[in-house]
Amino acid sequence: LSVAMPVFNGQRYLESAIDSILRQTFRRFEFIIVDDGSTDNSLAIIKKMAQFDPRIRIIQNHKNLGVVNSLNRAFEISKGNYIARMDADDISLPNRLEKQLAAFYRDDCLVMVGTNCTIVSDDLSFIGPTLLPLDDWCIRSLYLVMNPFVHSSVMLKGTIIRDRNLRYDTSLQAAIDYELWS
Q1: Pairing with 35, which of 41, 45, 57, 158 sits 20 to 30 Å away (CA)?
Q2: Residues whose CB is less than 8 angstroms from the CB of residue 28 and which lie 6 or more positions away in sequence, other chains included
């Protein structure tokens, strides 16, 4: 399993985001963190945490290349059979990776697994949960009008990403996830 997380000036929540992945109940993964030319303390935080956990692999963009290029770099060097997305301002529940992998193990036809999430404000006040569909038919139906996946909660079959050389489209400024899923 590879976990891919881009970071640009994410120091405010970064340590909590990294910690939420390092504390997962499933422990066998590489954690690819791409610092996208941050000008705050993001890189220092990543390096500090990497000292204590060899699963962290730091990729440093010397200038800001954007989230699309950063994610593509993470995909290119990932080694896992699965690739989990994570953002620097998100927190994953402790059993997230374990539950997503279990879904893949139950159904070998799956290519992608997402989750619902709880949305909070900048000060971490509760806003509300997402109510995304959970079954194949509802996901496919909703997909016609909107993206039914929380980008930073998705786990993809890494072998398909690599075999088909799938990447985020660098010409897009928005909906990069929706386009890749399509």
Answers
A1: 158
A2: 1
The encoded tokens of residue 134 equal 């959970």
Give the DSSP H or E segment for 48. Answer: helix 42-50
Q: Distance between CA 180 and CA 72 in Å, rounded? A: 11
DSSP character string of 84-139: EE--TT----TTHHHHHHHHHHH-TT--EE----EEE-TT--EEEE-----SHHHH
* Token couple for 176: 């990069």
Give the distance from CA 105 to its chain's centroid: 20
Where residue 124 falls (left for φ over 0; alpha for ψ -120 to 50; beta otherwise) is left
Residue-wise pLDDT for 87-120, tens only, equals 999 999 999 999 999 999 999 999 999 998 999 8
> How many angstroms separate the CA atoms of 178 and 9, rounded?
24
pTM of structure: 0.95
Nearest to 71 by CA among 18, 19, 11, 7: 7
Residues 110-137: what's their mean pLDDT?
Answer: 90
